[in-house]
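Query form — protein Phage baseplate assembly protein V

QUESTION: What is the three-dimensional structure of this chain?
INPUT:
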Amino acid sequence: MTGERELIDLARRLSRIVMVGTVEEVTAKPPRARVRIGDAVTAPLLWVNARAGDTRTWDPPSIGEQVLLLSPSGRTEQGVVVAGIYGPDGEANGSSLTEARTDYPDGSWETHDEEAGDRGLKITGNATISVDGDVTVITKGNATVQADGNVEAEAGGDVLATAGGKAVVDAPAIELGGTDGEVVTTAHPCAYTGSSHMKGSSIVKAGG
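ANSWER: The structure tokens for Phage baseplate assembly protein V are given below.
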């Protein structure tokens, strides 16, 4: 009888080493998830992230997400949760074999198409990039910055802009700082003589 009980216990443990379930509950502190398998719900268990050493990632599973439960020796209380199994309530968010895509609940997304080499990013909120060193942006094509609001650029030192062609500034009004109030272009007529200013730039064109 003892041997029979041991075989039954061994079979039970083997059947519990790898199981598929759905996330029932998630906590951030401590990072734990409870998994529902049939009518049973596990104790709070750790989930697997991409990295957890000097480099760390944080991507908790979602309630209702289908997951894999790995239980060493068939003991679910020692199990770990591996998220990311598509299921009836988690259909695939892509259909291309060459594009990686991540979608977020707020509508933000990021994509990378390894065949075309394209990268896409949408952020529904604000974006902040903080760099302690220098920043260099190089493109072999055109660069466009479009904002529905204001665009501000502030430098603690000099500002240098170099163009191989024309530099065009089109605005209803243009204000230039400085204390001398010098004329920018010789095309501007003198308020006293009506003639073109002698002092000014001959390559700057203003007012059409």
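ADDITIONAL NOTE: The helical segments are 2-16.
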